[in-house]
Amino acid sequence: MRSRKPFIIFWPQYFDAKRSRSNGRRVPKKYAIDKVTTGDILNAAKRLGYTAHHEKGYKYPRTWWDDPGRVSIDTQGKKKAKVLLEVAKEIKKKQS
User: Fold this and answer.
1) Which helix (H) or strand (E) segment is 70 a member of?
2) What range does the domain containing 38 cover?
3) Is the overall model pTM greater than 0.85, yes or no?
4) Do 84 and 34 form a contact (C-beta atoms < 8 A)?
5) What single DSSP character describes residue 43?
6) pLDDT tens, position by position, for the chain (96 residues)?
7) Is residue 37 in some structural domain?
8) Is the Cβ–Cβ distance between 70 and 92 less than 8 Å?
9) In a domain, 86, yes or no
10) Which residues, other chains included, contact 93 with Cβ-Cβ below 8 Å and sequence gap of 6+?
11) What is the largest CA-CA distance in the chain?
């Protein structure tokens, strides 16, 4: 098992516009995205210059029946909330 020390986990549910904050969304509504995939998160993180990996077979605990996987990003010492906003803005920019 590899160490996750420099990596932080990002789930697609963090960016889902259809979810409420209490159901797992972590970005403000104006930065939330409809139908976000782990590929979108991975590509946005790489465009921002982060090292990122897609990990299949993992399930978000609140939606254990859904299996989108997760993305682990080396945030280079930045806070998770800041990186969440950067990634969300990048995905929004790419979709527009």
Assistant:
1) strand 70-74
2) 7-95
3) yes
4) no
5) H
6) 455 567 899 999 999 999 999 988 999 999 999 989 999 999 999 999 999 999 998 988 888 788 789 999 999 889 999 999 999 999 999 887
7) yes
8) no
9) yes
10) none
11) 39
